Amino acid sequence: MSSTVVATVQKRGRFWAAEPHFPSPRFDASGRRSRGGGAGAGRRIVLASNCVSGPEGGSARAGDLVLVAMAGRAGEGRARIVRLIGRPDVARDAIEALLLDRGLARSFAPAVEREADGARAGGSDRVAREVAQGHRRDLCGLSTFTIDPASAKDFDDAISAERLRDGGVRVWVHIADVSAHVSEGSLVDREARGRGTSVYVPGAVEPMLPRALSNDACSLVPGAARAAVTVEMDLHGAEVARTAFYRSLIRSDARLDYERVDRIFAGRERAEDPWAQGLAAAREVSAALARARARAGGLVLDSEEPEFAFDEEGNVSAILAREQTESHRLIEHLMIAANEAVARHLAGRGVPCLYRVHERPEPARVVRLIEQLGSLGVSTPAVPDALSPSQAADLMGELSQLLERHVQA
């Protein structure tokens, strides 16, 4: 058996060694790496004298971060370097090392890549046939746009919206249809199941699908026809009057980012045709959904997410605080409405489905929070003598609304 570990290269006299860089690597009886404990932490790994060069042809230096493969059980025999990572004092290299330490592959097997390349072309042919046979709706004539972070590389959801003659608004939420390119049981499908999700870290991503799909065929880039699954909703205010669900073919007209949309909403930039009216209609619906959520005691969570910028050497050059703005909430409200519409549809048909339900807050903690906020002069709701978890959850929703108004005041 062989296993790998991220380590720092050391020179010990005439010998080369590697010290595990991260704490807590541990190995079971078969030699496989497991989590927890600290049995392997600090254990020096002896490198074979002819294995200090990486597979790319470069040579490791003392202090370099490397990925080391060990034959047999941990601590037995000698190891070899299978990848040169970089320097531990360079942020981008340290992040890459952490991804490898957590067991992420950082690449796809050649056979998976080849299948993904074939699926890209084959899926396009399949989608064209489905449109011609009437099994997929052609919505390429519908004004459509995406709203994502400026740093986004792939786009998996898009929005369309238009006002109706009866005063309502029709909204289309489009989700990239991966199944148009990936067949169940295929190599790509099995690889994606094993990965479970894409993993995002500052400056890097470990995608669930090869880039031929995640960044191309299944990415709703502007100007390209793409397969999608669409949730169509007619709304009057926040009330959903009609829904429809189907596979579609869409073409995004614009790749918008949060900052640009906020500038448009603030009147500092003009929206452009053909998506200007759709954005205005989507904003109208989002505002109605926000008001309804507030009346129902929905929890308001305004948080700042750090965004890291890197220089050419891979070091952090800036840390920017990205706060939740109206453009973020527009997408959030429309996605929640689409998810709820799908849930109601499945529940109405008796289709088994997984739901993510958050645990109820502990009543004692809610009481303590209300007491602390009250001592700071913040308006707080009345607390009953005996508080159940369900009541605690309702109180948290009411409290968040009060805090939102307090901050705005």
Outline of the structure:
With 409 residues, the protein is of the alpha+beta class. Helices cover 33% and strands 27% of the residues.
Written account of the structure:
This protein has a five-stranded antiparallel sheet with strand order 5-2-1-6-7. It has a five-stranded mixed sheet with strand order 8-15-14-11-10. The protein is built from nine helices and 18 strands. By secondary structure, it is α+β, with helices and mostly antiparallel strands. The chain has helices spanning 91-101, 110-132, 187-195, 211-217, 258-265, 276-295, 326-348, 363-375, 389-408, and strands at 2-12, 15-20, 26-27, 33-34, 45-47, 65-71, 79-86, 137-138, 145-148, 157-163, 169-176, 199-201, 204-206, 225-236, 239-251, 254-257, 304-310, 316-323. Strand 1 and strand 2 (15-20) form a beta hairpin.
Number of helices in the DSSP assignment: 9
Query: Numbering strands along the chain, what is their spatial order in the largest sheet?
Result: 5-2-1-6-7
User: Structural class, please?
Assistant: alpha+beta
Total number of beta strands: 18
Measured by DSSP, the beta-strand proportion falls in: 25-35%
Low-confidence residue ranges: 27-32, 34-41
User: Could you give the distance between the termini?
Assistant: 64 Å
User: How would a textbook summarize the main sheet?
Assistant: 5 strands, antiparallel
Mean pLDDT: 87
SSE arrangement, N to C: EEEEEEEHHEEEEHEEHEEEHHEEHHH
Helix content: 25-40%
The radius of gyration over CA amounts to 26 Å
Mass-distribution shape: globular
